[in-house]
Amino acid sequence: MQYAALIYANEADAAQPGTPEFEGIMQRYTEFTDKVNAAGINKGGEALHSVEAATTVRVRGGELQVTDGPFAETKEQLGGFYLLETDDLDEAIKLAAEIPAAETGCVELRPVWDFSE
Asked: How many CB atoms lie within 10 A of CB 3?
């Protein structure tokens, strides 16, 4: 089963690039990524730019609406994701707990639809 591990954190509280704290957190992400790559369960993922770079697209009544910014104002923002292939939800939960943002934000696990069947 594949799970999207959606990484949420409060951007306002995040360590800033160039600081020792940021470098330490990035090292932990690198270690986690290396671990899931070596196990063959990482099927993809990316870090995302800040919500300040977001664009939201809607179509209402056939009219295109484009707005700057994220879909909703929240305390935590989607900062990136992993696509993990695990045997079951329990394994996905154990891995999600190792993602650094789980300590200060949260990691939402969402099963991925398999349309190949």
From this structure: 24
pLDDT in tens, 45-93: 999 998 888 888 889 999 999 988 766 667 788 999 999 999 999 999 9
**Which CATH number belongs to the domain containing residue 32 in this structure?**
3.30.70.1060
- 21 part of a folded domain: yes
Give the chain's count of helices (H) and strands (E): 2, 6
Question: Which residue, 50, 84, 92, is CA-closest to 70?
Answer: 50
Q: Are 6 and 73 in contact (CB under 8 A)?
A: no
Tokens 């939800």 sit on residue: 89
Enumerate residues 6+ apart whose C-beta is below 8 A from 71. 54, 56
